[in-house]
């Protein structure tokens, strides 16, 4: 009888982490960034049906890079958790921190289980506060760890280079148009340092807008409103209510 091939636990975990990172790197990057009136989500996404960004609850948004079917399962689970907790206790008891902890447990369990492959996803959970100081952004890598981010965060294939670019240029109090243009500029940079053009129709953009009078702060930026923001010179742009979406995708 042959002796089973031995792999140390450290090597097994390293191999699983490398497998997950390669899967995430094949996906397009996305950016989540604070601006004066909230948090903006920006990503290159040619599909109009498969969203990278979604609403989870009143003030909470979700962003993901990697395999769509895997992060969609996580998104649905997060919506169910938020709805149940808000109904059982109070809507204010649903927080990004609590949701990030739930996602961390799920991702960590899957990553450490030898019975199934690790999820090839990286998540961002964001909550807009009453003031910029109350905003919360959490990044969750494939292994279930939680990273508390401030200002801006990028996930996906070219995340490190994009994050370095944003760290040097992001400022507190930016307008939505300024933040959007900075995010697109960061996403447009390739690994060789050059830039390419990303047309508006290939962008997916959403915001958590603290100034909205509704409880639900999430809305998508599409069509003419997105075009005006990309063309703006930094002045405030009035949102067109006909192009807002209050639906949780």
Give a quick summary of the entry.
The chain is an alpha+beta fold. The protein is 35% helix and 22% strand.
Explain what this protein looks like in three dimensions.
There is one protein chain. This protein has six helices and ten strands. With 249 residues, the protein is of the alpha+beta class. It has a five-stranded antiparallel β-sheet with strand order 8-1-2-9-10. A five-stranded antiparallel β-sheet has the order 3-4-5-6-7. Helix 4 runs antiparallel to helix 5 (176-187).
List the defining traits of the structure above.
alpha+beta, 249 residues, globular, five-stranded antiparallel beta sheet, 35% helix, 22% strand
How many helices? 6
Unreliable sequence segments: 234-249
Number of strands: 10
Strand order within the widest beta sheet: 8-1-2-9-10
- Helix and strand content put the structural class at alpha+beta
Secondary-structure element order, as H and E?
HEEEEHHEEEEHHEEH
Which assembly state applies to the chains in this document?
A: single chain
- If you average the pLDDT, what whole number results? 88
As a percent range, the share of helical residues equals 25-40%
Largest sheet: 5 strands, antiparallel
Give the distance, in angstroms, between the N- and C-terminal Cα atoms.
Answer: 55 Å
């Amino acid at each position: 009888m042959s002796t089973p091939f031995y792999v140390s636990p450290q090597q097994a975990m390293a191999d699983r982490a490398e497998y997950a990172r390669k899967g995430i790197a094949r996906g397009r990057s996305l950016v989540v960034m604070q601006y004066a009136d909230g948090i903006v989500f920006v990503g290159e996404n040619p599909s109009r049906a498969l969203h990278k960004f979604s609403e989870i609850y009143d003030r909470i948004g979700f962003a993901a890079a990697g395999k769509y079917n895997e992060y969609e399962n996580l998104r649905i689970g997060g919506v169910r958790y938020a709805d149940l907790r808000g109904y059982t206790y109070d809507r204010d008891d649903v927080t990004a921190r609590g949701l990030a902890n739930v996602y961390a447990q799920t991702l960590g369990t899957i990553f450490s289980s030898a019975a199934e492959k690790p999820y090839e996803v990286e998540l961002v959970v964001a909550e807009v506060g009453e003031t910029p100081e109350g905003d919360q952004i959490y990044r969750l890598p494939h292994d279930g760890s939680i990273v508390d981010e401030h200002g801006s965060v990028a996930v996906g294939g070219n995340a490190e280079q994009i994050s370095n670019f944003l760290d040097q240029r992001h400022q507190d109090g930016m307008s939505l148009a300024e933040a959007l243009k900075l995010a697109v500029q960061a996403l447009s940079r390739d690994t060789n340092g050059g830039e390419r053009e990303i047309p508006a129709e290939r962008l997916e953009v959403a915001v958590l807008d603290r100034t909205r009078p509704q409880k639900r702060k999430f809305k998508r930026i599409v069509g003419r409103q997105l075009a005006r923001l990309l063309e703006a010179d930094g002045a405030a742009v009035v949102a067109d209510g006909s192009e807002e979406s209050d639906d949780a995708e």
